[in-house]
Design brief:
By secondary structure, the protein is mostly helical. The protein folds into four domains: 66 residues, no CATH class; 71 residues; 91 residues, no CATH class; 64 residues. It is built from 23 helices and no strands. Helix 4 packs parallel to helix 6 and helix 8 crosses helix 9.
Length: 365
């Protein structure tokens, strides 16, 4: 009888609608910690105590309330409800703490009506519950986005550009802000067309997404910044089609790298078309110290030297391989001298770096 009762109970659970089974998953409640079912544990007296119950330590609580002070005045019942929603989805432990600590603003918003419909749609989009949970951990605001006003229009926008929902779902894991920030107009579409990239290209989805989430004035500034080094707009967009993330680099970084490449290294500007890593490399940590070391090796008459193609290979190497190829390959005394020179070159700070005031340009880049 007991065994048949268990089977009947399992059958009952399997027959419940999916929206209801979301509420039957493992959840954490205050009363569960009490051994006497007739005595209920009282609600914490403040938000800080509530966060500690869900696994946050004192440092986490301080960070949360510093980033979102309004939570200290939030309704504790509503706040607990939002945390319980995350737990019922299967987000707990370090993932829950990560969401609350890194994105406390999410808890200030409204989950709104239609949460179950939203979850069902998102699960069908990502394919599995595990993929959905990964996406929510990356961007908890997915639980807040309106299904008809935000989620579906975004999917329609990318499908209209020839990017499937499956591809977009994978991109959302690496670029969680695609959903709220994507927009296209005639000028952005013109930029995409001028790249000359085909929809079959592996880079196409990145070209479209980077332009879609970027502000128009940001795109104009970054294109104009590369243009002034002797490129046409079509050449800039051609570079962008081969390495879409060049549009994510700041104007300052591109300008400083290009100035050093042309002015100090005496390389032609168009070399970045074939070797775009020159734009991505850190000037203070890679380009300048390695180029200076190459000059030092040349002055000392040592081999191997960094000239022509070997210079470009040296700049592209990871640090351990670079040191083996050009520093530790020499005798101990020489290697020590070269290493001291290299470390000193890496320690050269940018002019007035200590007094530099950071300017936040805003999303996305």
């Amino acid at each position: 009888m007991a065994l048949s009762g268990i089977h009947a109970f399992r059958f009952l659970l399997s027959s419940l609608p999916q929206t209801l089974t979301l509420t039957l998953t493992l959840t954490r409640s205050f009363s569960s910690t009490n051994t006497n079912p007739l005595i209920q544990t009282p609600l914490p007296k403040d938000a800080a105590q509530l966060f500690r119950f869900y696994g946050c330590d004192d440092a986490d609580v301080s960070k949360i309330l510093l980033r979102q002070p309004s939570l200290s005045r939030a309704n504790l019942n509503l706040l607990q409800h939002k945390l319980d929603v995350l737990q019922r989805l299967g987000i707990a432990g370090t993932d829950l703490v990560k969401i609350v600590t890194c994105r406390p603003r999410f808890l200030s918003g409204r989950l709104g009506d239609g949460l179950h419909d939203r979850l069902l749609f998102l699960e069908s989009l990502f394919g599995t519950r595990e993929m959905l949970l990964k996406a929510i951990v990356r961007n908890p605001s997915l639980l807040n986005y309106d299904l008809d006003e935000r989620i579906k229009p975004c999917l329609d926008l990318y499908e209209g550009m020839g990017i499937s929902r499956e591809t977009l779902a994978r991109m959302l894991l690496s670029r969680p802000m695609i959903m709220p920030r994507s927009s296209l107009n005639d000028e952005k579409l013109d930029y995409i067309n001028r790249t000359g990239i085909s929809k079959e290209s592996k880079m196409y989805k990145y070209v479209v997404s980077v332009i879609a989430i970027s502000r128009l004035d940001t795109i104009r500034k970054k294109v104009a910044n590369i243009e002034k080094f002797g490129f046409t707009v079509d050449e800039v967009m051609g570079l962008f089609s081969r390495t879409p993330h060049v549009l994510t680099l700041s104007v300052d970084k591109v300008q400083r790298n290009m100035t050093y490449i042309i002015g100090i290294m005496k390389l032609p500007a168009h070399i970045v078309v074939d070797y775009p890593f020159l734009l991505y490399s850190n000037l203070e940590a890679v380009l300048r110290p390695r180029f200076m070391l190459g000059r030092k090796i040349q002055e000392m008459g040592l081999e191997p030297q960094m000239n022509g193609p070997s210079l470009l290979r040296a700049l592209r190497m990871n640090e351990p391989r670079f040191l083996r190829a050009f520093v530790t390959c020499h005798a101990e005394g020489v290697a020590k001298e070269l290493m001291e020179f290299y470390n000193k070159a890496k320690g050269i700070k940018r002019l007035a770096q200590d007094s530099k005031v950071g300017v936040r340009m805003g999303f996305p880049f």
